[in-house]
Amino acid sequence: MIETPCRCVIETVGATLGAIDEIDVSFAQDYPPVQMDAVSADDLGLHDKLEEYLSRRYPDGLFQHQHRHIELSLSGKHAIATTRTSSGKTLSFHVVTMNAFLENPNMA
Questions:
Q1: 10 contacts 79 by C-beta, under 8 angstroms
Q2: Would the pLDDT of 104 be above 60?
Q3: Could you count the other beta carbons within 10 Å of the beta carbon of residue 104?
Q4: Are 35 and 2 in contact (CB under 8 A)?
Q5: How far is CA 90 from CA 19, 69, 85, in A?
Q6: Which tens digit of pLDDT belongs to each residue from 15-43?
Q7: Taking a C-beta distance cutoff of 8 angstroms, is the pair 91, 83 a contact?
Q8: Distance (Å, whole) CA 19 – CA 2
Q9: How would DSSP label each residue in the chain?
Q10: pTM: predicted TM-score of the whole model, two decimal places
Q11: Calpha distance 78→34 (Å, rounded)
Q12: Which candidate in 15, 19, 56, 83 could, as Cys together with 87 as Cys, close a disulfide (CB 3.0–4.6 Å)?
């Protein structure tokens, strides 16, 4: 268990050229104010180097909202993560970006 108060909403957004056509709330959960379960990143299908880094850097796993955001983004969906300050939203975006670079080294 990782201790943190958190209200988490992940929304998948159908967007065309930046215009939002619809918003579908696919995951919303209120977490207890003291503890939140961590989730392993092993099942996300990330590049081996990134998966190894995450398991070393975050041995307890990712927060559930991070895992869900990464999962949606890797499946090609537009996703928005909203949580409190310092809950790891930026890591979610960085993981998806770094995975794309590792999978496609000529991308620049």
A1: yes
A2: yes
A3: 9
A4: yes
A5: 23, 11, 10
A6: 333 444 555 555 556 555 445 678 899 99
A7: no
A8: 37
A9: -EE---EEEEEEEEEETTEEEEEEEEEEEEPPSSEE-EE-SGGG---HHHHHHHHHH-TT-EEHHHHHHHHHHHTT-EEEEE--TTSSHHHHHHHHHHHHHHH-TT--
A10: 0.67
A11: 30
A12: 83
Dist. CA 6–CA 17, nearest whole Å: 32
The candidate with the shortest Cα–Cα distance to 80, out of 24, 5, 19, 16, is 24
Tokens of 6: 């958190």
Residue with tokens 């958190």: 6
